[in-house]
Structure to design on (387 residues):
């Protein structure tokens, strides 16, 4: 597996690597930990790690040259493993993945974590490069994986793929709330929420993710508190400032990220989970954010943007409300409805059923079935193949 960043911060790669390792494959993840790092050896999940991090003067080269050299190192290290399958995560790894696979006559898997050509890149040149890389290499892949049906259909149509990409959604592989390895903090007590409704937004905050309008909506929802869990950095500071201007700062809370294995236990203490991607790009329109599946696994009803993939998921399972992420009044109405539903038994039953169906235990079968076809191995146990 090739990854253009530190595997520690990519739950999708870790889930897939662990699933393949447990199925009997020898899995090696070649990644880019911080410059100068020599992280290698066995990961906690059992697969092997190889670091392609730059060292010495290479780490101080101009950005374009540094990235080119990193791509070459990734390809070289991958080929050195003599794999049966090279699994390229995201468009940045397509070219080095193709090169490594060609060197050793391995199969190539392209795992598109997002609609790469639908992201609003800062630089037109970078957008053009991403489009060129996909155009050059996607059709050469032996299999394509992505995160939603909408993106799968887009990729198949755009690149005239003979087979529809395998959809592997970002459902969590985490301990359920009641099985957290350590007792979670009592969030309501720590935040001074008491019996008031608690709304949670988990994960990073950034432009076009609805944070500002969520605060404006909070001003219209009496007594409710809002927790940004895992929000930090300059953008979070800007949201704090906005909360003060809107006079909702006493009901708005910012907490640092928690360990992944405690995430669901923390989220389960809230009443509602929100995800408010704005339709600013095609990637957002077709996305299925990790946080939505995490809310469901924690037993929370959701309030989400009325975008094609998100709305279809929520309506299929009847587990929440869809809103216009650009309209604070629409968001506020959704939040009030979700809070008002409270512990509605029918809603709790639907959430429990959705959590069972949207589980990694089920989702990973698609990954294992794909690898069984690629390698010609029986599904279980698998042995001897290297990815």
């Amino acid at each position: 597996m090739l990854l253009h960043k530190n595997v520690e911060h990519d739950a999708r790669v870790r889930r897939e690597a662990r699933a393949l390792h447990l199925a009997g494959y020898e899995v090696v993840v070649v990644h880019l930990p911080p410059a100068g790092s020599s992280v290698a050896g066995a990961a906690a999940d059992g697969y092997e790690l190889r670091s392609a991090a730059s060292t010495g003067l290479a780490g101080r080269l101009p950005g374009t040259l540094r990235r080119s050299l990193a791509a070459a190192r990734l390809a070289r290290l991958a080929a050195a493993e003599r794999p049966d399958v090279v699994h390229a995560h995201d468009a940045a790894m397509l070219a080095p993945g193709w090169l490594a696979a060609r060197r050793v006559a391995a199969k190539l898997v392209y795992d598109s974590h997002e609609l790469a050509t639908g992201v609003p890149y800062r630089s037109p040149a970078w957008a053009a490069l991403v489009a060129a890389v996909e155009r050059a290499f996607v059709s050469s892949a032996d299999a394509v994986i992505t995160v939603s049906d909408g993106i799968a259909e887009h990729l198949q149509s755009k690149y005239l793929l003979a087979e529809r990409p395998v959809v592997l959604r970002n459902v969590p592989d985490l301990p359920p709330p009641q099985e957290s390895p350590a007792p979670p903090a009592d969030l309501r007590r720590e935040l001074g929420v008491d019996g008031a409704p608690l709304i949670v937004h988990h994960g990073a905050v950034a432009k076009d993710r609805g944070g500002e309008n969520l605060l404006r909506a909070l001003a219209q929802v009496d007594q409710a508190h809002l927790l940004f869990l895992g929000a930090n950095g300059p953008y979070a500071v800007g949201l704090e400032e906005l909360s003060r201007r809107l006079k909702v700062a006493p009901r708005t809370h910012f907490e640092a990220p928690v360990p992944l294995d405690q995430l669901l236990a923390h989220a389960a203490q809230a009443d509602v989970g929100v995800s408010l991607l704005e339709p600013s790009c095609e990637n957002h329109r077709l996305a299925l954010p990790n946080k939505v599946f995490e809310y469901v696994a924690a037993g929370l009803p959701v309030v989400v943007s009325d975008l094609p993939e998100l709305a279809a998921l929520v309506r299929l399972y009847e587990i929440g409300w869809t809103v216009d992420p650009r309209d604070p009044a629409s968001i506020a109405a959704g939040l009030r409805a979700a809070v008002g539903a409270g512990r509605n038994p029918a809603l709790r039953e639907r959430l429990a059923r959705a959590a069972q169906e949207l589980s990694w235990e089920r989702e990973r079968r698609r990954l294992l079935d794909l690898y069984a076809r690629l390698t010609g191995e029986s599904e279980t146990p698998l042995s001897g193949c290297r990815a």
